[in-house]
Amino acid sequence: MKNIYYWCPFIGNIATIKAVINSAYSLSKYSNNKFVPTIINSCGEWDRYNSTLSKKKIIVKKFKNIFSINTETSGYFKSRITYIKIFLSCFLSLKNTLKKDRPEYLIAHLITSLPIFLYSIFNFKTKLVIRVSGKIKMNMLRKILWKLCEKNIYLITCPTKSTQQDIIKLDLVEKSKVIYLPDPIIEINEILKEKNNNFTEVKLEEKTFVMIGRYTKQKNHLLVINCFKELIKKKMDINLIIIGNGELKNKYLTEISRLNLESRVQLVSYQKNISIYLSKSLALISSSLWEDPGFVMIEAAACNTFIISSDCLNGPREFVGSDNGILFKNNNIKSLEQNILKFLDMSDCEIKKKKVNAKKKSIVFTKLRHFKILSNNLI
Fold it and tell me: What's the CA gap between 306 and 301, in Å, rounded?
């Protein structure tokens, strides 16, 4: 048996949580006890998932903290302070865990700077696997640390081929160490179960579009809110629900009020079961400034929901194309407006065909597929 430790400190509700749980579960479920996954609970952020992790037979290793750390904080500066606290608080705990427990692999998802720093100054028996996604910010200090750590990096996994190529171009490690590993986003049986749960309790107005994601600058919800104002001016009978939480909530509410859209645009707090909203909506709109790959788009495809997405870095273009959805120019309100109108003019037959194609493509992101690629690279 090989012990696999997952390092993924997080704050708030982010899609990476699901990726880590599903990745660990896939190793536990499909490996016939060859792999034993453990998630490191660095600052209490995993406490609320104890029941889920226990059911999936995933071990949790909890660290003691030297600081009080609020994992529900929001906002750029507050979150950066929290990351620094996690780095400092977990420095010795992570070092001692790797020295004492000697797991076969450490898979680092977030705040990867700490394991990279530790591996650059200490020798560990544990092989380091780093997941890299999103916008890659590489300053001089980070490049130096990566180079110092290079020999100790066993593998870099990327959720999109675009990110994989970006990492290879940076020449941080040998090309053979950088692999494309689709995130384990969906499980068809789970989606069917979620859709059936409370199906009649969730009621949406006709012609309702849905957006799902944290209320942050990255998700660019204000673009869509302002676009809906223009569409409603043209007598379009459409509605919008934005599901999530975050630091920009009050700003969104102010803008919705300013544009007199209270009867058309609704904010709904974070929902654990999004499948039911996706399956009842007219289409999903993703307006992110960057995504990698964009979990909610994969979930929408699996729920047979039409996808309208910004053509942003790094992931949407790899999943959404003219055969299975619509891409609009990134951060371009006119392009979004034109493509929503294009969608509303589509025939039922054309929409159905694109949804079927998207659903077929979503199979790449199952737990089993993720397990096969990951396990083959961990042997």
Answer: 7
